Amino acid sequence: MNTRKLAVAAGVFYLITHVTSVAALALYQPLVGPADYIIGSGSGSRIILGALLEVILALAVVGSAVALYPVVKRKAPAIALGNVGLRTLEAGVIAIGTVSLLTVVAVRQSAVPGADSASLLTAGHVLVGIYDWAFLVGPNLVLATSTMFLAYAMFRWTLVPRWIGVLGLVGAPIIFGRAVGSMFGLYEQVSAWGAILSIPIFAWELSLAFRLIVKGFSETVFEDTDVEQAALSRSEKSLATVE
Length: 243
Hints:
243 residues, 0% strand, mainly alpha
């Protein structure tokens, strides 16, 4: 196992998740903004491109967890497995939201001239609502949970500098609380406060990504392997002496 390559892969996957998520959100503005998008005309290519980026996002989410798994497993097998499971769940929820927006485009393109606009608007609101809730559950609640466990492992066993783990331990409960607040209508899901509260989790992921790409994991990852190799070497020498 090449730990350095795994670190670079995980870091690249994290960066991909940031680029694709921000770009997709910008492309979705024609749909999530005006309420009458579904009764308009046009190809909807921006939404389709945004959906493609979110598919890449979902794959990168899983890829980051899979790349980290062999290394984190050395110190915390349960956390490593749980991170893969939670990130896979997050990717699945993202996919549900993506399909709902693609359905809006399909309805828009196939609407029969003279169709009931009120019914189409209702369908559009429902489908966009599914996307909004998927975004709240996946990249917020589930992400916060997986981040809490992974950041604890990074901090506890110093797989990366501990200040990076602290960012995750701080950012995870904040984004979880932000999502719960949005669920109960305390503030809009996309708002200035929401952006401010997301800063720690963004700092955690970006810091982790650049650390893994530039320097990889800390030397503590290899301590157990070094001990095992030393013990094996002593055993071989003892056997040679007996012979």
